[in-house]
């Protein structure tokens, strides 16, 4: 059984055939890596940068996340670059390490939380992976079964946070965020990942 239940929803800016926003969820019995990636700008070049970052993360998903971001930075130097947020979860010890470069917002919603309660916000550091990498410092938090990680790109308005509820399913949450909170003038991505009872 998978250690996570995932929901994802996208909005592609009108006039573009491909989104510059991508997501990634990789897992085995010991580790989960969750990432949301926003290629700088729009269209094919943004999408290509995001694809490269996703490939680097997928290949090395068991590595420490600071090393993963540094690897992305090196691979993306000849591209527009990306902003991203990612979380690595140690299933055995119930610990999550996460960090963000740029403006991909992250929220940890604790199990059983109703609207506006029991949540942790990801600290974002200004920069662009592939261009201007800030000093990287990850945050470590304990996590438990039914906790939910939410990542959204900057095509989603920040007030989506007030609507979050741990009682809503991940796919429904992702679709609702995009439907009600997308800005309409940028690609948008909502990724919602809930840890299942079977593993933590």
Report on this structure.
- Helix content is 20%, strand content 34%.
- The chain contains three helices and eleven strands; from the N terminus they run βββααβββββββαβ.
- The chain has one domain: 4-Layer Sandwich (Phosphatase 2c, domain 1).
- A hairpin with a 4-residue loop joins β4 and β5.
- The two termini are 12 Å apart.
- Strands 2, 3, 4, 5, 8 and 9 form a six-stranded mixed beta sheet that branches. Strands 1-11-10-6-7 form a five-stranded antiparallel beta sheet.
- The chain is an alpha+beta fold and 200 residues long.
- It has helices at residues 43-59, 65-75, 170-181, and strands at residues 4-11, 21-27, 31-39, 82-90, 95-101, 105-109, 119-121, 124-125, 139-142, 148-152, 188-195.
- Helix and strand succession? EEEHHEEEEEEEHE
Under CATH, the topology can be stated as Phosphatase 2c, domain 1
Oligomer: single chain
Q: What's the alpha carbon Rg, rounded to whole Å?
A: 16 Å
User: In the CATH classification, which architecture applies?
Assistant: 4-Layer Sandwich
> How many E-type strands?
11
How much of the polypeptide forms β-strand, as a percent range?
A: 25-35%
Please give the alpha-carbon distance between the first and last residues.
12 Å
Question: Helical proportion?
Answer: 10-25%
The CATH class is Alpha Beta
Which regions are unreliable across 5 or more consecutive residues at pLDDT < 50? Answer: none
- Which structural class do you get from the secondary structure elements? alpha+beta
Task: Report on the biggest sheet.
Answer: 6 strands, mixed
Number of helices: 3
Number of domains: 1
CATH homology group: PPM-type phosphatase domain
Mean pLDDT: 92
The 3D shape can be described as globular
């Amino acid at each position: 059984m998978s250690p996570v239940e995932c929901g994802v929803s996208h909005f592609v800016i009108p006039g573009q055939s491909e989104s510059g926003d991508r997501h990634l969820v990789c897992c085995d019995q010991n580790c989960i890596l969750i990432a949301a990636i926003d290629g700088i700008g729009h269209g094919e070049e943004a999408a290509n940068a995001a694809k490269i970052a996703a490939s680097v993360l997928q290949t090395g998903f068991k590595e420490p996340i600071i090393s993963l971001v540094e690897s992305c930075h090196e691979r993306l130097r000849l591209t527009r670059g990306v902003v991203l947020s990612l979380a690595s979860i140690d299933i055995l010890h119930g610990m999550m390490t996460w960090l963000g470069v740029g403006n991909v917002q992250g929220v940890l919603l604790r199990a059983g939380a109703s609207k506006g309660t029991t949540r942790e916000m990801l600290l974002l550091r200004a920069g662009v992976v592939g261009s201007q990498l800030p000093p990287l410092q990850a945050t470590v938090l304990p996590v438990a079964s039914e906790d939910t990680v939410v990542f959204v790109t900057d095509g989603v308005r920040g007030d989506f946070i007030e609507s979050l509820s741990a009682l809503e399913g991940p796919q429904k949450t992702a679709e609702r965020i995009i439907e009600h909170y997308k800005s309409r003038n940028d690609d948008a991505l909502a990724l919602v990942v809930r840890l299942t009872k079977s593993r933590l």
